[in-house]
Write a structure and sequence with these properties.
39% of the residues lie in helices and 18% in strands. By secondary structure, it is an alpha/beta fold. The protein has two domains: 237 residues, Aldolase class I (TIM Barrel); 77 residues, no CATH class. The strands form three sheets. Strands 3-11-10-8-7-6-5-4 form an eight-stranded parallel sheet. It has a three-stranded antiparallel sheet with strand order 9-13-12, with no helix packed on it. It has a two-stranded antiparallel sheet with strand order 1-2. Helix 6 packs parallel to helix 7, helix 8 crosses helix 14 and helix 11 runs antiparallel to helix 12. It is globular, with a radius of gyration of 19 Å. 50% of the residues are buried.
C-alpha cells in the first residue's frame, strides 16, 4: 500500500517497504551501470531523495574505495554499491565495501548464496538482480532483502530468458514475499506507475541516468542515446553473456562472426579487452560496446540527476491522480 508522507522539497513523498528499507524519500533507484555510475552520479541521486548506486563493475579495487569515500563525503543520505558477482576481484571489492561501511549492496550476474550471508552478517542490506521468478526465489532463499526484476528491455547484461518487464514483474511478485523493484524499459513517472500498479514497490532506472550530467559516460555516448530510435538496440552475444547494446560497427562484426559459426573462443578474441570502456567511457561509437536499454529511444535530453528524479516523481504523482489523462 502507498502511504503519503510529509512533503520533501515541495513534493509529497510516500512510504512503502522499499523507502523504509533504504531510508529514502522516493522508491527510485539509479542502476549501477559500468562506466557511468561513479560517486558524482550516486551522490546526486541520493541527495535528490532516491537511491544512488556506484557501479563497481568497471572499477579496480582502489578506484572503488576512492569512489565510496567521495560518495560518503558528498551525501549524508543512503547510497549503495552494485557488484557484478562475475568480477575477477570480487573478494577485494566485498572487503572494501565492508571496510568502508557501505550499508546497501546490489548484486547481479551470479549466485546470491555466495556472498549474501557474509554481507548480512555485517549489517548490510542485500538486493539481487534477477531475470526470472526461479532466480527470484533463490535470492529470497539466500536471504536477500529485496530483488530487482529486470526485463528483456534493459541495457547491458541481460537474462537468457528474454522475458519482458510486463511479464516478469508480476511473475516475480507472485513468486516471493520480499519487495520487488522493477527494471527494464522504465524512464518516466507513468512507466513507474504502471509497474507499481502491478505490485512492484520501486523502480530501478539505468538508461535515464546514463544521460544525466553527472554520469561519467562520454558525451558522445550520451548524445547517441538521446538521438536514438526504437530498434537501434539489440540483445546479442548470447553465446557469451547476453547483452543489450546499440547496433554499430562492433556489433556488426560480432553478428557476422556468429552467423559464420565462430566458436566461443573466437568470439571472446573478437570482443577483446576494455571494449565497453572504449565505447561508453572513451566515446568511440563505432569500435566500442555501447550498452543501453530499449527505452533510450524515448530519451531526448541530458539533465542533472536531481532534475531527473524530480521530473519522474512529479509525473508519477500526476499519473496517479489522473491515470486516464490521454483517454
Amino acid at each position: 500500500m502507498i502511504e503519503l508522507s510529509s512533503p520533501i522539497n515541495g513534493i509529497e513523498g510516500f512510504s512503502n517497504r522499499i523507502t523504509a528499507l533504504f531510508k529514502i524519500d522516493y522508491p527510485i533507484i539509479q542502476a549501477g551501470m559500468i562506466w557511468a555510475s561513479g560517486w558524482k552520479l550516486a551522490s546526486a541521486v541520493s541527495n535528490a531523495g532516491g537511491l544512488g548506486l556506484i557501479g563497481s563493475g568497471s572499477m579496480y579495487p582502489d578506484v572503488l574505495r576512492e569512489h565510496i569515500q567521495k560518495c560518503i563525503a558528498a551525501t549524508p543520505r543512503s547510497f549503495g554499491v552494485n557488484v557484478p558477482l562475475l568480477y575477477p576481484d570480487i573478494e577485494k571489492h566485498i572487503q572494501i565495501i565492508i571496510d568502508e561501511g557501505v550499508k546497501i549492496v546490489f548484486t547481479s550476474a551470479g549466485n546470491p548464496k555466495t556472498w549474501t550471508s557474509i554481507l548480512k552478517e555485517k549489517g548490510i542490506t542485500v538486493v539481487h538482480v534477477v531475470s526470472s521468478s526461479k532466480f527470484a526465489r533463490k535470492a529470497e532463499e539466500a536471504g536477500c532483502d529485496a530483488v530487482v526484476a529486470e526485463g528483456f528491455e534493459a541495457g547491458g547484461h541481460n537474462g537468457r530468458e528474454e522475458t519482458t518487464t510486463m511479464v516478469l514483474v508480476p511473475a516475480v511478485i507472485n513468486a516471493v514475499k520480499i519487495p520487488v523493484i522493477a527494471a527494464g524499459g522504465i524512464a518516466t513517472g507513468r512507466q513507474m506507475l504502471a509497474v507499481m500498479v502491478m505490485g512492484a514497490e520501486g523502480v530501478q532506472m539505468g538508461s535515464r541516468f546514463v544521460v544525466s550530467e553527472e554520469a561519467s559516460s562520454h558525451i558522445n555516448f550520451k548524445n547517441a542515446v538521446i538521438n536514438s530510435f526504437e530498434g537501434d538496440t539489440i540483445l546479442t552475444m548470447k553465446q557469451l553473456t547476453p547483452v543489450r547494446i546499440f547496433k554499430n560497427k562492433f556489433y556488426q562484426q560480432m553478428h557476422e562472426a556468429e552467423i559464420k559459426g565462430a566458436s566461443v573462443e573466437e568470439l571472446k578474441e573478437l570482443l577483446g579487452r576494455a571494449r565497453a570502456k572504449r565505447g561508453m567511457f572513451e566515446g568511440n561509437l563505432e569500435e566500442g560496446e555501447l550498452e543501453i536499454g530499449q527505452v533510450s529511444a524515448n530519451l531526448n535530453d541530458i539533465l542533472p540527476a536531481a532534475k531527473i528524479v524530480d521530473e519522474v516523481w512529479k509525473e508519477f504523482k500526476e499519473a496517479l491522480a489522473n491515470p486516464l489523462k490521454n483517454i
